[in-house]
Prior knowledge:
two-stranded antiparallel ribbon, 765 residues
Amino acid sequence: MDLDALRFGNFSQLGQAITDWEEMAKKLATLEKDAKDNLGGKAAKARWTGENAAVTRSFVEKTAAEFADAHTQARTVARILADTRDELVAFRDDLIEEISRAAKKNLTVRDTGDGSFTVTMNIHPDRAAKGTTLPEHSQSDMEGLRDRVQAILRQATRSDTTAAEALRLIVDQAERGFSGADYADRDSAAKALAAAEALAKTLKKDPSEVTATELNAVNATLATYGKDPLFAEKLATSTTPDGLLTFHAGVADPYQGFGADPNRLKQAKLLQKNLGVALGTATLSDSAAMRSWEQKMVKLGPEELGTDHANNPRGFAVMSNLMRFGDYDDQFLNEYGEQLVAFDKERNVKNMSPWINNWNNGDLNFYSKNDRGRDPMTGFMEALGHNPGAATEFFSQPTGTGSGVDKESELNGNLKYLTKERIWLSDAYIMGGDNKVIAGHDSLGHALEAATTGYAYDADPMAAKDPMIPGNRDMRTAETAGVMEQVAFLYGSEDGPKMLHEQAQLADILGKMGAAYIDDIDYSLTGVGDNAKDSGAFPAKYAGRAEFGNQGAINFLSVLGQNESSHAVATMAQHLYTLSALDANPATSAQSIDNAHDALTTGAEARGILDHSRVQQAEETYKENAEEVNKSLGRSGDWVKLGVGAVVGGGIAALPVPGSTGVALAIAPVAAETIGNAVSTFIGHQVDKEFDEAEEDPREKAQLTSQQFYEKGAAELGAAYGSYLKENPWMDVASDRADWTQDVKNAYDTGSGQGDTRGLPAYKD
């Protein structure tokens, strides 16, 4: 900063700008509150149907969110401007005071341009009036004045330039709309940028020369600023994609840990997560610099890094392990994934994996004994599992296929390749791992779960109470339904039982996906064939609901029933949905009574398909070992005890998942926004003490014959009907509704029969 610019600076115009921004922030705060409470709040509570659900709801929610970002950006700009103005005024006052003090020693400073100045005598002795005695000064006085003025200008320059850089970055964060970057003052933004610059210098070092202490400092900085948008972008753009990946590969290289500080491996593990989070935050910026960085990262994917560390991995191998953590830009993930799949397809040869082989010892994942991180597809699937929007796009149903899926040509190429064609291998560590586990299957399931439910696979949907925060309502859309239709077709096809058996780690996740669409599955079971569907008893909860077809629904349920875990979660979701439909349709009108009847009988039919499939598979799996068959059915019969852990709110239920290899929660729709007595009774019952106090494995202790298993299913359906009668004692039992009990029995038997004649047979080794 030039000396005269600060010395004679008039900050009145800046002050007016600050006032304008502060007034704008106040107005936007009012608009944000109105958008949140009225626009967004009402949108979250409304029952959207038709085009309104597909277009208007999304538009309303995005608009409400934009008001929040606009307020945040205006407030941040006002704060940074005000803080900078105050600092510059203070520096100007300091400068004037220094010049005033210097005059007492006949010294002053003169601006020489380009930020430079010179210290001179204020009045030269030759020009002084006769008889005037000028103050004396020493060389040290001149040097002291120079240093003090220089320090003031240096601080003013830093205040001015960091404010300008922060404001530019904030504006560039969003190509359209507004940035959500929120800073209390210029100093906090400047600290984030300075921390990024300092960290970038460390990340440019040879990783083998970075000590555990330095890594600790790196992780401390990343943990503090990793989700700070300005820090993240500055860090990414102050380094290069290949430099970052090379650094992480060197730190993660297991051979770096031998003979070194044991804390190093701990710090390497933290680096994987912390750096992944920071890079994800960086990709959320729409600036030209970040778009260029992302393009370079994608292009780098197939290339070897040219390092001696971690077996000289390709870019995909390193980046996929970093992106297991963090919130990433959807477009970046899809561009990255398309490039990865294309590269992988060309090398999908039996016993010739480019990733998992005897010579690749580049272990890059610290978070699972069964997943060394050598296969980049696994890490990428984990990234999709945490980024639902990207996952839905990556597996989107091809355009022009219409509703439903009834042939392989209507499948997304990525989905078909990853579920049916790709050779997945175990990537377990030799010491401590289980080579029977294929971590990639689990991660594929995580990606599909996110793509179909709209939730990150490990999200807690009941943790978010604010209706403006996605996570406490039904997140399904026509797009997520399009992915679900494909999944149901694939695993409900002739190859479905074999696929489920060979991809056993997907079983619980397929159950969770079935649970998330249980209302649409029930709807597909109604009517005659694919005609006269019952939208009264099973109304669409979102536009573009999933269409499975009558046969498709039967097939998919019959496959879900084959596995203990998928059977349990699908059955629990079915039972809860049926109870919620009974609560939602009290006997106050003929239409409501009919809806309750249809919900109960269709639920019984679905239950029959699931239970029949479970019995058939147990008998096939354990063949003539009756005791093991009974134990298996006993475990399947105890799903109802898990209902005590269910939580309902916002039109969805969070259900505990038995035997889950991941986060044990499934999302399932309920028929009403609030729960009634039938649902409350189910989720509030107490688990038997006998069950609680059983031996080491109480689920192994339970035994049921197939006859008892079916009887138990019928009894639970009967209890549901009983709860409806109890809540509606005035129901006209003199009419044909008196036949409800027989209707429920027939529906349960019909489902069992359909599972036998129209469903898919049990898997045979």
